[in-house]
Amino acid sequence: MRGGIFKRYVVGLLAGLLTSVAAVNAAADAPGVSAGGTPEPNVQDAQNPIANVISVPFQNNTYLNYGPLRRDANILVIQPVLPIKIDDDWNLITRWVTPIVSLPRVSAGQGDKFGLGNMEPEFYFSPSHVGELIWGAGGKLWLPTATDKALGLDKWGAGPAAVVLTIQGPWVIGVLANNVWAGSGAAKANQLTINPFINYNLSDGWYVSSAEVVTANWEIKSGEQWTVPIGGGIGRLFRVGSQPINARFQVFDNVVHPQGAPNWQLQFQVQFLFSAR
């Protein structure tokens, strides 16, 4: 691998470590955390995107062979998850997806870019009492937070979002999907995201996982719209003192992708978990 890959991994991981201290402290002080500080979340809670736990994931994605110069790009996604109890029957699960983007030079006229992309908060209404099928439905927003036009579309937008999963013994299997529309005229976005996930839990907190993020950009020409990664990896839930932490590493091959898009992806995630009342 080239040195640029490791450089962007270091940048992303350092940014995650620096911001994690503030995020973890904020979550620990938030309503819904057990007063005694004793963590209750387990590994299946970490794998359930709408579990009734507070979660602060830092997901670093390195994309290989990006752009016409075939360099590497990096996106650190910080997405704190906060469940809010509405009543005895319903919860509102909020996920604040915040990308920090590092793009390489793509031409003589456009150099490296680094900054904030479009924040995309998600909101899921989910039943408090669940059976074999766990589900949530709601919406997703697209906020005009991109600090550069190369890092995102600086427009308002929204769309529907839903998730469904089942937990069967050691298996956690499900799919999360949304479509968002933003802007109008020449400056607009229309993007579908499908996130199927499958986890098989082993002993001592270890598990194998495959959690691809499939996207379709409906605004570009037919034949170039889809990005379909295939792959997976391994993870483990462990504790530092009484604090549960979930760490996961995955590798994906983009078997379908637009021209100039990356063909490989490396993903490393560290997720802090806190009990909710």
What secondary-structure arrangement, pairings included, does this model have?
Blueprint: H1 3-29, H2 43-47, E1 53-66, E2 71-78, E3 81-85, E4 90-103, E5 113-116, E6 120-127, E7 133-142, E8 157-168, E9 171-184, E10 187-201, E11 206-210, E12 214-217, E13 226-240, E14 243-256, E15 264-275
Antiparallel strand pairs: 1-2, 1-15, 2-4, 3-4, 4-5, 4-6, 6-7, 7-8, 8-9, 9-10, 10-11, 10-12, 11-13, 12-13, 13-14, 14-15
Structure explained in plain terms:
The chain has one domain (3-275): Porin. Helices cover 12% and strands 56% of the residues. It has helices spanning 3-29, 43-47, and strands spanning 53-66, 71-78, 81-85, 90-103, 113-116, 120-127, 133-142, 157-168, 171-184, 187-201, 206-210, 214-217, 226-240, 243-256, 264-275. The chain is built from 2 helices and 15 strands. By secondary structure, the protein is mostly beta strands. The protein has a 15-stranded antiparallel sheet that branches.
Summarize this, please?
With 277 residues, the chain is mainly beta. The chain contains two helices and 15 strands. A hairpin with a 4-residue loop joins strand 10 (187-201) and strand 11 (206-210).
What brief labels describe this structure?
277 residues, mainly beta, Porin, 2 helices, 15 strands, 12% helix, globular
- How many strand elements? 15
| DSSP helical segment count | 2
| Known CATH architecture | Beta Barrel
Strand proportion, as a percent range, falls in: over 45%
Poorly predicted runs: 5-10, 16-39
Amino-to-carboxy terminus distance: 46 Å
Quaternary organisation of the protein chains? single chain
In N-to-C order, the SSE pattern is HHEEEEEEEEEEEEEEE
Mean pLDDT: 88
CATH class: Mainly Beta
Shape descriptor: globular
- Work out the helicity level: 10-25%
CATH superfamily: monomeric porin ompg
Total number of distinct structural domains: 1
